[in-house]
Amino acid sequence: MREKFIKWAEIICTGKSILTVLKELKKVCAKENLYHEEGGCLEKIWHITHEDALYKEVGDIFLYKVRNRDIANAAYNKYLYHTNPDFYFKYATNLSAMGFNCADTENLDEELPEVILSLCDRFDAIVYMMICLHKNKDYDGVLELEKYLTIIKSKIEDYKNKTSNDNKTYWEDIQYTEKHLSKILSQTQNHNDINKFAIRLNKENKKAYFNILKDLITYNNFENALKFYNNNVCENFDLKPTGNIKSLCWIVSDFYRDIFEFYNAVFMQKIIIDMELEEENIHA
Hints:
mainly alpha; elongated
């Protein structure tokens, strides 16, 4: 899978048509039960082909597979709007008059210029591939795709800085996507490179920092754990520094307790107990 994705990422970064890539990626996402990403691929295919039936397919995915009726409704609205706009506005107006707000008339057309829309779709496609690789625990594959994601993001930033268009909602979408990917990556234990990538995507992802701390402490890298906490975690989250490794263990344990990851919380407490027992043996 990794080799295929790298090949696709290279195509995405060239500026060539990505229609074939999106169609194949949609199949992979469906096979992996990544239904949000499958629906995302279909929407991006629509941006290229404008085949209105694709929105009906998106609606079906979110209605029957994801069980998200709001997104399903939005997709069905777009399908009806694009296939029969005159009827759609009558239908929406009547529902509104009856007190229902399930047929919005906003956001039915793509308002972004084709250039930036294409770049954002390419960015999302690489993210979808990363999510697939992460689900299959191919963490090195995820990291290999980072450079391609960086290339596309750089192009989006260039576009943003060179255009005077006030509509920069796409930039907010890119930042949201980065945070979403960061959250997924920070589910990974015992892989500091993945958690560092999660931090690069979102420096406010506290869990990624504490995953790194836990890993450093687990393997007795106490000096590096204290440095990482004092120089990175404290600075980003306005916490008090510490020079005591047992105090740091309690801080990490409390963090995992607060997010209901009780196994990790107890694991850190066991490390503290082992330290105390070792100190007692030394002074016995």
